[in-house]
Amino acid sequence: MFNMLPQITIRDLIDISIVSFLIYRVLIYLSRTRAIQILFGIMTIVMLSVLARLFHLYTLSFLLNNVLTIGIFALIVIFQPEIRKLLARLGEGQMGLFAQKYEAEKVIDEIVRAAATMSEDKIGALIVIERDVKTDSYAEAGTEIDGEISKELLITIFWPGTPLHDGAVIVREDRIKKAGVFLPLTLNTKLPQVVGTRHRAAIGITEETDAIAVVVSEETGNISIAYHGKLIKNIEPQRLKRLLKSLLVKEVETKNTVKALITTFLKGENVEKDS
Predict the structure, then answer these.
(1) How far apart, in whole angstroms, are the C-alpha atoms of residue 201 and residue 128?
(2) Please, is 135 exposed, middle or buried when counting C-beta atoms within 10 Å of its C-beta (0-12, 13-18, 19+)?
(3) How far apart are CA 183 and CA 139, in angstroms?
(4) Rounded distance, CA 99 to CA 197, Å?
(5) For the segment 121-165, what is each residue's pLDDT rounded down to a tens digit?
(6) How many angstroms from the chain centroid is the CA of residue 16?
(7) In whole angstroms, what is the distance from residue 180 CA to residue 145 CA?
(8) What's the CA angle centered on 175, arms 105 and 130, to 5 degrees?
(9) Using CA atoms, how far apart are residues 208 and 33, in angstroms rounded to an integer?
(10) Measured between alpha carbons, how far is 185 from 202 in angstroms, rounded to an integer?
(11) Residue 209 near residue 116, CB atoms below 8 Å
């Protein structure tokens, strides 16, 4: 009886591991966008279709099957932005694992110092920190900066009267990539009317991507932080620093550790082959 069972080889395990990893990364990517809600809706329709077949509900089964057939073509249209971004990330050779090493703590320090100064002087600011999901599609109309992040550069950009002070700044790793970026506003109708445009833009970009947004109110000087579509208002610089560290430092350290292990493993393989 046991001899009839298929033999699982190392190659099969590698194959399953690669497929599992790819599915996991795609789901992680989708979970940070609104596409995951549509995906859950499709899974619900599939489950209803299976149940309809089991209980011989022919009319419902016919209807759901036709919906799924049409849905395959609709998916290409609905998921077009996500598919384009996903393919772009694959083309770049990174799916949130091989991110370039950078000192996250230094970036956090510069952002916190700038936010604290702008808070005291009531200078409005919106700083978006990229994580895994790129913000290129939202920042196309922004002005290219590509400068090393610093407190002085951030304050200069947001200084009242300068051409770029009204938009957002996009931070990618340890560099300011773009400034003067106008972001999508959240469609959340539950927000109070007093929530301004900067805060709505901060929530909007964190609903569409996994970015983190730091906001300084021009009216009150209060500092806020947005992530995963949620907004925490009126926080002190030290708390801002703790929040950014909890969201960024551990993530970057994990990526760098995994990257180092893979690099070491590959180098080890090359040494063995050379010998």
Answers:
(1) 10
(2) buried
(3) 7
(4) 31
(5) 999 999 999 988 888 878 878 899 999 999 999 999 999 989 999
(6) 26
(7) 10
(8) 75
(9) 5
(10) 8
(11) no
